[in-house]
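Troubleshooting: if your tokenizer reports a length mismatch, compare your output against this known-good record of 156 residues.
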Amino acid sequence: MMNPDLTRRFGFLVSDVARLYGQQFDRLAREEIGLSQAQCRLLGVLAAHDGDQALSQTELAQRLGLSTMAVASLCDRMAAAGWVRREPSDSDRRINRLHLQPRARKALAGALAIGDTLSTRALGKLSAAERAQLLALLAKVRVQLINLAATEESAA
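Known-good structure output:
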């Protein structure tokens, strides 16, 4: 059997870049704002739905790609530390809706700044045109993967 060069395979390369970026982001976020990458992602997803109906823990788990138990544990810690607030749903008392606390917005701004700085460093060897092209191509692939998943769900 041949020894494949995984660094030329899309799936491996995207996963490895995400893993390496995530490790760097996690280290910097813990040092600078005292939050993990997972906690920053949670804040980011909640902030993206700010103004809409607040997300439940189940909806949050789906958007984060985590189990409901993992998100429940994460939310327990985040609520205890004052980053998020749980409110019972008006329509179903079994559901809690999650809201960002004011201090979480400041932390999220810090996380976005960390991400911007890390992205600048990671993409530093690329020209402005190459950076724009890379982001545009990844956005196209993302849309295609979303469409594939939707097609598979409707066929099932």
